[in-house]
Amino acid sequence: MITSLTLSNFALFKKQTIEFSGGFNCLLGQSGAGKSIIIDALSFLLGAKSDKTFIRTGEKTMRVEGVFEGISSECKDLLTDWEIDCDDEIVISRTLSDDGKSSLKVNGFSVTAKMLQMLTLKMADFCGQHDSVGLLNVANHLSLLDKFAGKEVEQQKSKVASLFEMLKKVRAEISSLGGSDAERARQKDLLKFQIDEIENAHLELSEEETLKERFDFISSSEKIFESVGEALEKLTNQRENVTSNLYEAKNILSGLSKFHDIDECRERLENAYYEIKDVADVLETIKQNTDFDPRELERIDARLDLIKGLSKKYGRTIEDILAFQEDCQKRLDDLEKSEETLSKLQVEEDKVSKELALECENLTNLRKKYAVDFSEKIMQQLADLEMKGTKFVVEFSAAECSAKGADGVKFMFSANQGQDLKDLHKTASGGELSRLLLAFKNVMLGKELVQTVVFDEIDAGISGITAGKVAEKLVNISKFTQIVCITHTPVVASKANNFVLIEKNVVDGQTISTAKNLAGEEIVLEIARLIDGGKDVSTTAIKHAGQLIGKLS
What we know:
alpha/beta, Rossmann fold, 6-stranded antiparallel beta sheet, 6-stranded mixed beta sheet
């Protein structure tokens, strides 16, 4: 539940912290004072679409921060998944600048708008005359019915989900073995083609690098021939024969071997002679073997193209291609050996399918049983709220089998006796929907996860006995869930256990809204203002207000 809400430069509020308690929190104040702004701020904090028009005039940035206690295990699990520290309290803050920049944080950790909505969806509901709380969204109706049904349906859903996962697993294994006979034949043909294509290429691991090097050599043969020939000329030219000169030089020094330094030089010249002679021999061989052969170049080019084509389909390198071939061969062998396994899996598939269909049918029957009880309880609640001619029915339709069963569910509603049942969102008026929401919340007491429910003038347009009934329903809800409620109805306001007064004043030419928690006679006075409808209140109104809240006899 929310324990405090701090607004900074949000609409008419400059800097304000509002304290909330468990149970029934009531926001009081004259029309236009800023009560709905509090709801807008809370909605913004919990993930509603940002709106720069809420930034207070003259300011650049607005900020809203809320402190929440008693966090559900489901919310804690989410925060743990996001690696956000959390104990029994979380702090959510959200800022928005006039340039559109925003910041969302949970316990000081930045989160995305989607993450914030995932979290807060499990924390609070907003209920106004035009809010659906899931009721108007057909996609939510099945889960709402299941929440009402509780443990028995959840256990049956668990059976269905387990069988559905088992069926998926069996079908995945069948698919891995080729599925139907036709699909198996197609897979085998494809695998054989791929194996043959790679096999017929007769690839060798280091082949591509060798081919590329040879291709470059032949492409450069003319330059190689010229350069090697020129180098040989320098080494073997008769007039300046390097090797002959080295040979003669080392022979001249050979007679001075008793002198160590000279003999060392002779040895080095001898080594140089043999090294250069060897280089000359190699260059001569290269020169003799250098010949531009367009046919060999064409053959190498075609071979490289073949390897390139295979690499596009089967792997970046020859090693990858050969590994792919090996994998294809293994899959082909498995397909050819798997007839018996496939037959067993198909028998298993048929068995699990039948079990799943039976358990889905059992789940449907359970849901239908609870749907009758759910409808009756909703209609009883509506009768308590002076809507005695209404009908509420849970309509079932067949759906594709899934882990949730094989049911489509839709809430149908008729507000007046003799009228046909229609989709809830097509027929309920604002006033009818507000009471329907109250009825729903009372029927679902203790069955929902949210810990805070916000009612924004849900009692608008009602009075007398109905207003009293609305007050009773709100009190019932507040025993299980924190309520934050805006109301102008005295009997509704009188049932709260925490009162916040919102006032609007002009200070130094600026309009500023403020909020304060009320106590004692302040509460009686504000309830009396609701009774009299003005700033000045009569003694009678004060007495009546005291009686409503049980402070006077």
